[in-house]
Amino acid sequence: MEQPILEARSLTVQRGGHRVLQNVSFTAQRGEVFALLGGNGAGKSTTLLTFLGLIPPESGEALAFGEPVHGNVDALRRKAAYLPETASLYPHLNAWENVRYFLSLSRSPRPQQDVAEAFDQVSLAVDARDRRLESYSKGMRQKVAIALALLRGVPLLLLDEPTSGLDPVAIDEFNALITRLAGEGTTVMMVTHDVYGACQVARRVGLLRRGEFVGLFEAPADGMISADELHQAFASSHAG
Amino acid sequence: MNPVFHIALDEWRYWRRSRLGAAATLVTLVLLVASSVVTYQTVTAERQARDQLQDAAQSIFLDQPARHPHRMVHYGHYAFRTPPPLALADPGVDQFTGAAVFLEGHRQNSATFSPAYSGPQGIRFANLSPATVYQVLVPLLLVVVGFSAFSRERELRTDQMLLAAPVGPGQIWLGKTLALVGLALVLLLPLLLLVLLIGEDRLAGLVLVAGYAVYLLVWASITVSVSARSRASSSSLVVLLALWLAVCIVVPRGASTAAQALLPIPSKVETDLAVADAVRNLGDGHNAGDPAFARLRANLLAEYGVDRVEDLPVNFRGVVAEASEADLTKVMDDFAERYAGQELAQAQLLRWASVLSPMLALRAFSTTMAGTDLAHRHQFLREAEAIRYEFVQGLNRAHASELTYSDDMQRSRDAASEKRTRVSPTNWATALKEFHLQVNPASERWQRAFPYLLLLAVFAALAAGLGLSRRTAKGWA
Amino acid sequence: MGLITRELWFALRERTVQVTLLVALFSAAVAVVSGLKTVGDQQQLIEKLKTETAAERALAVAAQVDPGGTAYYGFHFTYAPPSALAFAALGTRDTLAWKHRVRMLALEGQLYEADTGNPELSLSGKLDFAFVVAVLAPLLLIFLLHDSEAGERRSNRHELLRVTAPEGRKLYTVRAALRAALLWLALVIPFAAAALLAGAPGSGIAVVLGAAAFSVAFWLLLCRLVVSRITTGPACAAGLLGLWLVLTVVVPASGKLLARAKVEVPSGGELLLAQREAVNDAWDLPKQDTMDPFIERHPEWAPYRSIERPFEWKWYYAFQQVGDQVVEELSRAIREGVAQRDLMMARLAWVSPPLLVERWMTGAAATDVPSFQAYEACVRSYHAQLRAYYYPLLFEATPFSEEAKALVPEFEPCAREGSA
Fold it and tell me: What DSSP designation does A15 have?
């Protein structure tokens, strides 16, 4: 088996004096969409921030491309893009300017043509692109942020509740996009509390509950993870 | 209990628990008490020192030996400006004006030795008189404590629970403002105590405190109203701080600079030169032979039916001195009044900026009530001038009646005549009245200060309107 | 796009930055223009008073035939011209005298006239460039920076920025420094233009530019320290305002109180009373009681010490001088006290950057207390020149021709550009 792109090895993390992740282990392979599913306070965002190298693990390891991420943020930055929950880019800039600014920050400028294509991919209305983000709806802002993540052209995407605020049509488009990217070899890890959303795109779903990894669901080779099954597991893990 | 009080009490509880509000309040209180104590000590010492100097000047004058009266005209006297009792609360312009005037014949000297002369210099508005602390720093405290009164609840969405309670937005505004006003009133206690402690001029002092209360009410309402109209605490704070900066720092300075540029007034040296020019043809009162006094001589000779000044029953030189002083003083008074008028007009221009800055309105009110405004400085100069004129003319009358013309003419050459021209020191006491600068009656000060209080009340009403006119529930999102 | 160009572009798109920079530019421009006007007015006034005093003196002494009368009626105009940089820091020029009309009488009675501006205007103070730089600029910088990190956190951009930009948290420092630099530019552009217009010396301009840079840099540092430790914008603002208040108001004000308490300065009233006694008592004292202390100071006039008539001009001016001698100690004590207090403020300025900045600027502009004292010293030395001119005429009773009259020393301002 080839080396996983992402790997958590007995990951334990403390935040603000509380242990929020406890002995969590999982892997995500190249070209795979891996979802972490959990309720409020399950430790989803903490996992993501740990993989971004922003929080040091107390024990265990978070590896990306085979390297521990902590203390190695610079290397990761070139290979990973992050989409924060309810991403709000700069409201005083328009879509072009926002994307251009962040791409410049990450030292990965892209020609205008590519940016326009990315906007097309996330179906951001053409007439909205020259308006400042302060006039955007929540979903439109999310689209710009997704476009930005795409434009980074990196092999790893870390997404925090990527579909929140998107309407059903946009969610379908987003799912299609993610599936296509994965098919092209991009690894995607997303955290979500949306059971059905997770089933739509993820080949594997890990279930988190109060910082502990309580289950792993894999899609059969010819289909998707059963939403009902996942929902049942999610509900029972939270009932207990 | 009325929900308004509930809201107010709840706000107090929040401040007590948030370290920011509690710390800021504590620091301000310490500053207030410290500034009151220090100002009380320094101004009291100053008052005593000036009173003592005044008494000393008085007794030195009265203790002078027998002399030619005109010598005493040039010996002169000093008038010291003793700060009024309420200068303890608001020293006003006193720090920049001369503390003493030398009073002598034929001249109106300007005041000398302002406290600024020997005072340490640096950042002008860094002075911690109670007035400055209340005018500039307490508003800042109210802003820092109250900027999130509404916006905080909006961010936490607790506002919708309040509205669902159901409490009207007006009631919420009132409750929050009441809480802030309550804090302001607590902060006013040191000033109230100071005014009661001063003892003198107590009624005016209480009115003064009332003025500060209205001023702080303005700030409390502005703070809560801006908070009510802001989406987020951060924007509420920025707007309020910008307002504070404009009202307390930029507008007063800008207006002062503008008044200077728009309505320049001549300097004292220019006025002195103009006076010298105007009196050049009045004749020298030291020289009875000056042709300027020919008419006076003719009238006097006719009145007494004699031919020569030597035969007059009065000393013609004294008569000339008195007449010449009167003419001279008239000219000098004209100039002094014109100058005072110009100074007032310039200050008035600055005070017009009160419509932009409640702080300027309060300062006008406060210095007027305390008796430390420009008008009171002019009053000092006028009263000092009155004393000057009176003792100079008293001495000139003694000059006319107590010695003879021939002795007076001979005295530079003849020692015996010289001796006879010395008049008794009892004349000093009749000529010189005691000088004790009294501040105007409180009612008169109140009349002049009232418009500014009215303006402050208008500000308070506008600020309240800003908060209450906010659209209800819908405007909350 | 380079880091600097990109962040510059980014900053200039931000509303807060635009507004604050405009406010800074506008206040600096207003301060500089009104400063230039004030200084221009002072220069005009000096020229006017120079000619007017001379004309008045000509009229007043025309009829005087002896040096005594000429000295008595002849006033001379003395002044401290504003330096080329005075427009930037008006300093004490509205509260301490920079012009006096003096004559040959006892000098101490003529020096302390509080001929200054309208006290009600002084109470407000002036909006000069020094004020803008020392007091206003820190507030503007606090406006600019207080929410710079907390705002990013609030909008969920903090993590995104950290994983996107290789600079990591340094990005905030770059942004803050760039905004501070922009603020500095907005402040000094109007100043630099005016300074060139006014022909100010390069060293003085450098001091002012440096002072502005120091002020901005110091507050940049403070802002960074606070902003990177406190996570909400309002708390940052409150903390920074507290620091501003302490450094700008509380420390200087306490320093003034301390300087007053620590350094006794004799009251001017005492000096005035003492001098009047000395001058007036002379009329009643035996003439030699006046002449003895005078001759002690001026042994060269010993041969002329005897006074025959009840009134002689040389005796009159001798007792005027003795009047000054009597209060010499008191006068020196006052001057030294004032200098001592200023020294204390200078030391204190090291813990109050706004005060330090103001002092640098008033120093460069020669509008500080030492410059004021230098002017007083200048008047003293001119008065001594007058005495040196008149004494031979009075004592040797040399014939007083119109030519001799014309030789009376003219006042020349003592050169004092800023102590850069």
Answer: E
ipTM of this predicted complex?
0.87
Query: For chain A, how big is the Rg over CA atoms in Å?
Result: 18
At residue C193 the predicted structure's pLDDT band, cuts being 50, 70 and 90, is very high
* Interface contacts (A, C; CB < 8 Å): 57
Dist CA A227 CA A235 (whole Å): 12
Q: Report how far Cα C172 is from the mean position of its chain's Cα atoms.
A: 39
Q: Are B117 and C96 in contact (CB under 8 A)?
A: yes
Cβ–Cβ < 8 Å for A31, A44:
no
Tokens of C139: 């507030």
Task: Give me the percent of chain B exceeding a pLDDT of 90.
Answer: 34
How does pLDDT run across A81-131, given as a tens digit for each residue?
Answer: 998 887 678 988 999 999 999 999 888 888 999 999 999 988 898 999 999
Contacting residues of B for C115, CB less than 8 Å apart: 110, 267-269
The tokens describing B287, both together, are: 């020289």
DSSP state of B309: G
Rounded to an integer, what distance in angstroms lies between the CA atom of residue B120 and that of residue B170? 49
Q: What are phi and psi of B12, to 5 degrees?
A: -60, -45
CB A54 within 8 A of CB C162: yes
B189 vs C73: CA distance, rounded Å: 58
The model's pTM: 0.89
Segments of C305-387 assigned E as strands: none
Nearest to A99 by CA among A146, A159, A158, A42: A146
Taking the CA of residue C40 as centre, how many other CA atoms within 13 Å lie in the half-sphere pointing to its CB?
12
Q: Provide the edge-to-edge strand list for the sheet that holds A67-68.
A: A67-68, A59-64, A6-15, A18-28, A212-218, A204-209, A33-38, A187-192, A156-160, A80-83
Residues of C in Cβ contact (< 8 Å) with A77: 163-164, 166
Element (H, E) at B102: strand B100-104
Buried b (16+ CB within 10 A) or exposed e, C113-123: bbbbbbbbbbb
Q: What is the pLDDT of residue B475?
A: 41
To the nearest whole Å, the CA of B250 is away from the closest chain C CA by: 8
Instruction: Give the number of other CB atoms < 10 A from CB of residue B437.
Output: 18
Q: Do C165 and A106 touch (CB under 8 A)?
A: yes
